[in-house]
Predict the structure.
Amino acid sequence: MAKLVDYRDTSANLTDYPDGYTHRKRSLVPPEAQSAVHDLGRGDFGLNDRITCFRDGLAQMDAFAVPRASDEIRRIGGLYAFYSGQSSNVFGQLRACPRLGWLMLFHGDGYIRQAALESLPDIPNSPFEFAAIVYRMNDWVTIVGQAASNYAARAFQKTDAGIVAESSFFLLEQLDVLGRLSTESRSLLTDTIYRPDVIAALRAEFLTIRSGRVARTLRQLLRRPEFDRYLEELARSAALPSVRAAAMETLLSGKATWLVGHTLQKVDKIYGRCQYIPEFGSRPLECIVDSESLLKMAAEDKAAHVRKVACDTLIALRHSASPEMDQVALKLAADRNAAVRSRAEFYVRQRELTPDPKATGHILKG
């Protein structure tokens, strides 16, 4: 059973603006785009200019904004039961100006969403548009989902790798939440994300990005082996400690793990209390690494988060440890971080290590 993703922590980091057209105080849609949506929703002329302004606004928005911004666009434009404006036939408008489909795919009427998707003449030009198409692929109206999949089949492989990569930070976490995606649609999306040029773009993002829930995205990406060859580079050079830690843990354990959902389990039979228990998928890595070298590197990392990974690995392998591992543990037992130090001390106690005053290193007791 999949538990819905909580967007509160993510939405807090999204840029918002004053809402000029609805009762809400703030909006994720930039002011110029709000004005364009308002005009287009009322059938004002100058379609091409207003659509360009609208799409320029979408290009400023993050893919994470799609769930909330979709509703805001619908409210600002009044896109509910049927499109009403100076032209009474939205289908005729779409035939005359197919780019209007980029707005009408947010319409409340399923027939209009379907027509909008069938009319789109070009590929997504922003992460927001790419993610919006994926959400239409998951539409509750079957014919809309099929229309979105048909569009994706002809457009996704042509979409810029940078756009796909950036939207992947949102979409990879949604793979187990978008439950209405057909098998064909799901394969189409994953095959696009795992394109070689997209994987290369994601590598560059993971190496340089400095904030966000990036490590979770990395773990989701490791469902397939295409990214395995970049893990050692991330463990050494990624700017974000959580990414280095996730890559290091994956390499040292020899397997990739990712969250697939949550199961509701009873934890207190007397009072009937339940909680969601995470469920994980896993697979063995398809790359060969020097574990001892990586372990030493993890123990010397400047981030305590990565050094804790080294300690956890030592503890997991304590029954088959080598003298080199013991040396690493004794060094970590004097670490400045309490969490690292306590883990290393546990390993030392389990291994019964003690300093040798006659040597520069340490030996096993007895």
